[in-house]
């Protein structure tokens, strides 16, 4: 009896490992986020206030560093197609070589209600990388 139950458990585990009998996850929607992009705010698809904090946290690679420190000239942040990099606050970790950098932009004026697109472009290890995401500005209070 115990041997039969063990065989059944092994068969179930093998079936699960091979994907049999399990629902497959749907493919991710939209372009894949590059490994260097740790987090973005507002979250993709979220509803935000009219002056949201737009933030990107990057995992730094050699392509994003110069002499071990983050090289801000190797990134560009855009909102609705407008380059806002010069208006962006940049902070990095205090390790060497630097491991992370955070870019933060808050619009000087309230954004129009409706969908908006943010984009981060940067030097990748093999080629330039770009990640875009959208969010919706709604008539909700800012925190």
Can you give keywords for this protein?
143 residues, mainly beta, Immunoglobulin-like, four-stranded antiparallel beta sheet, 1 helix, 11 strands, disordered N terminus
List the helices and strands and how they pair.
Blueprint: H1 2-18, E1 37-41, E2 47-48, E3 54-59, E4 65-66, E5 69-70, E6 75-79, E7 82-83, E8 89-92, E9 100-105, E10 114-123, E11 128-137
Parallel strand pairs: 2-11
Antiparallel strand pairs: 1-3, 3-9, 4-5, 6-7, 6-10, 8-9, 10-11
Helix count from the secondary structure assignment? 1
CATH structural fold name: Immunoglobulin-like
CATH architecture: Sandwich
Q: Which quaternary structure do these chains form?
A: single chain
What is the 3D form?
elongated
Structural class: mainly beta
- Cα-to-Cα separation, first versus last residue: 62 Å
Determine and state the CATH class.
Mainly Beta
Task: State which percent range the strand residues make up.
Answer: 35-45%
The total domain count is 1
Can you describe this structure in just a few lines?
With 143 residues, the chain is mainly beta.
Task: Please describe what this structure looks like.
This protein is mainly beta and 143 residues long. It is built from 1 helix and 11 strands. It has a single domain, classed as Sandwich (Immunoglobulin-like), CATH 2.60.40.1220. Helices cover 12% and strands 38% of the residues. The strands form 3 sheets. A 5-stranded mixed β-sheet has the order 2-11-10-6-7, with no helix packed on it. The longest helix is centred in the N-terminal third of the chain and has 17 residues, at 2-18. The protein starts with a helix and ends in a 6-residue tail after the last strand. The model is unreliable at 1-29 (pLDDT under 50).
